[in-house]
Fold Endonuclease V.
Amino acid sequence: MNNDEINDLLEKFKNEQKALLPKVQLKNNFQLENIRFIAGVDVAYFDMHGKTSGVCCIVVYDLIEKKIIEKVHSHGEIRIPYIAGFLAFREMPLIKDAVKKLTKQADVYIFDGNGYLHYRHMGIATQASFFLNKPTIGVAKSYLKINGVDFTMPQNKTNAYTDIIINNEIYGRVLRTRVNVKPIFISCGNWIDLDTTTKIIMKLIDKNSRLPIPVRFADIETHAIRKELLTKE
């Protein structure tokens, strides 16, 4: 793509995100006790046949049985270039294909990425919610710095957190899921509030990782599938 084409794409993407923003609701549209099946979503990239390809893996976890009940994936060529702040447009085709393969629809989807913690409050978790029609959460391993605002490190204890406040608005939360490990950066996607987001994430933490179980295993699956695809090349 040349610069003019990229600029046209940027304008189109910005307009789409602006149109969706009024539909974002940072409040629960469910009862927490009714939440059972949680999906973790991750996308990884690789080069194949001289083109950028991607693989999306979704792992569904049963909160009651405390086990993974389904894994699906999709892969294909990535046709949208990487543009900071517009990751959803790059990843949504693969996510949609993977979701269609699920036999068990999740109650909540957690994305390896941001939600409301985004330049225009439209990270992958938020934007994907309109296709999924389900509550969504964003979980990032690194901090997206917006308007030069740094985060405050939470205390070194389990479930300690500090809110990320930018322009007097809470964008997300820095959450310490385990003692002596780096915090994660969580944000609402859509149809969920930040306190409930925190509760759900903490229900999904075990001794093996600072990341919630479905997201961690989705990440593991993307790397495994990517390796398998590259081996067949």
